[in-house]
Each structure stands twice: as structure tokens, then as C-alpha cells.
Amino acid sequence: MLKVLILFLLLMAGIVLGPMLAGHQGYVLIQTDSWNIETSVTGLAIILILSLLVILAVEWLLRRLLRTGVRTRGWFLGRKSKRARKQTNAALVKLAEGDYRQVEKLLSRHADHAEQPVVNYLLAAEAAQQRNDEMRANQHLARAAELAGSDQLPVEITRVRIQLARNEDHAARNGIDRLLEVAPRHPEVLRLAEQAYVRTGAWGALLDILPSMQKAQVGDEGHRQALQQEAWLGLMNQSMADRGSDGLKRWWQEQSRKTRQETVLQVAMADHLIVCNDHDTAQTIVLDGLKRSYDERLVLLMPRLNAGNPEQLEKALRQQIKQHGATPLLYSTLGQLLMKHGEWQQASEAFREALKQRPDAFDYAWLADTLDKQHKPEEAAEMRRDGLLLTLKNNP
User: Which one of 94, 308, 333, 351 is least enclosed by Cβ atoms within 10 Å?
Assistant: First the structure.
């Protein structure tokens, strides 16, 4: 700009000084309908130079005024941003103290001028929810959604978290389903999905997200295993409630072989079938489970079974005694089965074997019953007395 001005001034000087040096200045006539302007070339050049200077002066003045306005506006905005930053830092301290009223107040004030206004509004919404102020929480969420634009993921995550805090479980479930379509492996989305699905009994959906939880490393292996078992048991209860024993058996057959070999599920399935009075199928599951691996939970179910083939249970118990030794549980269970079949002598022998290894009030009582059946009242009374003393000792 400066170079152009210098060149222009040199040009004008040439136009003015040239005629003067040459001895004549020329003649200029500007004529309109109402008036005439007569001047020399030199005069016209001077007028043009003065006009240019006036224009440059006006431009400089306007630029100075506008720059002052921008600086003033920037000063006010910077002041608000600085205040918002200071209040955000103070809010984090109050959050550590658990003062949620001050947290919400500090975060929402001047939040529009904060470095991350969406975060301020979301934290303010959660702080308001901690105070059970649902109206304020909804207002902060709505403002955060406006500022977030196309990135609504953090807003929706916060919304679901607040819904779970309000026990609006089905609304949270609906939000989680939408979030999983957008971010199927987001750790926080998966954690919230776990809560929503457990609360609403969405066991099939819970099983579906377990592989994603494993890939995202949400929870440890034990936690995911417990969730899987809880989901299986939930589906089992639903099948029993909807279709009874037939629904249970149909659901069981639909599972993979690996799933059917889970001891926890075998125990739960047998227990559900006993409740449904399907003892034959329950006995089959118990015996199949014991063939693969010994588990005391399966043994404890045996006395509750009233199937048509009790001999199979006795045979299986004696086989377990050979393989795993004469444990008190196996002998006590064998004694209970023999009692149900009226084999009093063998039952009493089994209870005596169990009591040799550890005293148990129930075994004393069962042994006394078998002795009564064998017409041995004195010995039966002695066993009951021993069992009573043991009970008093364990429960003073």
C-alpha cells in the first residue's frame, strides 16, 4: 500500500511540476448543466492529491475505531472466559468435597464461556441429579445437547446415567439400545448397558454384549463369568415361568454342549426341574454332571429327587465314594437315600460313617430315626442327646 502511494505521489508531482517547468500549466474545464469548473492541470492535480489524503485519513480513523471495538469486545470475552475457568476449577474442588449444590452453581454460571461448555453442563446436570433436582438436571442436559452439535454421544451417556440414578430403568434401556448402535464397544456404554439389562431382566441382550465387554476389558473375567451365569439363570426362570417344565427342557436343549456342561447351570436346571416336579429329567442331569466331574452341589440335590429309579442314585453315590473317598457328605447323602427306601440298617451304617469324620446335628437326628425303626430306643435317645448338645454348642 505504501509503495502504491509513493508511486502515485511521484506521478502527481510529475503532472504538476512538468507543465510548470515547461512554462505552461494547461487548462481544465469541467462543465455540468448548472455550473462550470475551470482550473489548470496543476490545480486539478493538487485537488486530487488533497482528496486522496482525506480518504486515507478517514480510512485510518475508521480502522482505529473498529480495532478499538474489537479489543474492547475481546477484553470482555476474555474476562468472562477467565472467570469461567476459575469457577470450573472451584467446582472441581467442591465436587471432591461432595457439595453438589455449589458444584452445579459454579459449573453452570458462565458455562457458555468455558473452555468445554458441554462438559460443564453435563457435570452440572449430574450434580443437580445428586440433589434430586430433576428439573435443573433436564435444563442442563438440554443446553448441553444444543452446544454438542453432531457429537451427542457424551450427552446421551450422561442422560442414561441420570435415568439409572432415577430408577427409570426402561427409559435407560431404550437409550442404551441406541447408544450400542453408535458405539458398541465404548466402555462406559457397556457398563451402563450391564446395569440397564440386569435391572430390566434383558438376559438375552446381556449375553449379547459379553463378547464386547471382553474386548473392551470391561470388568475382569470373574465378573463377566458371574454375569453370564446370572443371565443364564434369568433365562431359565423366564422359560419356567412362561412354559413350565417343557419350556425349561426346550431351552436346555437349545443351549450348546459346552453350556450344558457348566456345573452351575446343571445344578440350577436340576433345581428348577425339581420345583416343576420333573424329577426324572432332574436326575438325568445330576447323574450326567457327576459322570463328568464331582461337585458337592450336585450331590446335595440327590435327597430331593423322587425319580422312578432310585437305584441309579445309590449306584452313582457308591461309585463316587470309590473315586473320591469316604467323605462325610457322600455317606450322609447315601444314608438319606437308603432311609427313603426303608433300608434302615444300611442307612444307619452310612450315617455312622459320616459321623466318624465330623459331628453333624442332622446326621445325629437321621441316625436316631433309623435306630427307632430298628427298635433301638436307648441308642436312638443317646444320638438325639448328642445332636442336641452339638446344636447348643454351636448356637450358645
Answer: 308
Q: Above pLDDT 90, what percent of the chain?
A: 24
Output the nine-digit C-alpha cell for 388: 442336641
311 and 247, same structural domain? yes
User: Taking a C-beta distance cutoff of 8 angstroms, is the pair 328, 358 a contact?
Assistant: yes
Does residue 26 belong to any structural domain of this protein? yes
pLDDT in tens, 125-173: 888 888 888 898 888 888 888 888 888 898 999 999 999 999 999 999 9
b vs e for 97-118, b when ≥16 Cβ sit within 10 Å of the residue's Cβ?
eeebebbbbbbbbbbebbeebb
Cβ atoms of residues 360 and 383 within 8 Å: no
Residue 26 lies in domain: 2-77
Residue 33 lies in a domain: yes
More confident residue, 197 or 71: 197
The alpha carbon dihedral of 352, 354, 355, 360 has a sign of: negative
**From the centroid of its chain, how far is CA 52?**
70
Residue-wise pLDDT tens digits, 18-34 = 665 555 556 666 777 67
Residue count (the chain): 396
C-alpha cell at 391: 446344636
What gap in Å lies between CA 329 and CA 293, rounded to an integer?
A: 16
For residues 81 and 113, the answer to whether their CB atoms sit within 8 Å is yes
Residue 181 located in a structural domain: no
Contacts of 313 (CB under 8 A, 6+ apart): 283, 287, 302, 305, 307, 337
Asked if 336 contacts 364 with a C-beta cutoff of 8 angstroms, the reply is no
Please report the pLDDT score of residue 77 as a whole number: 45
Q: Is residue 202 part of a domain?
A: no
Question: Residues 299, 334: one domain?
Answer: no
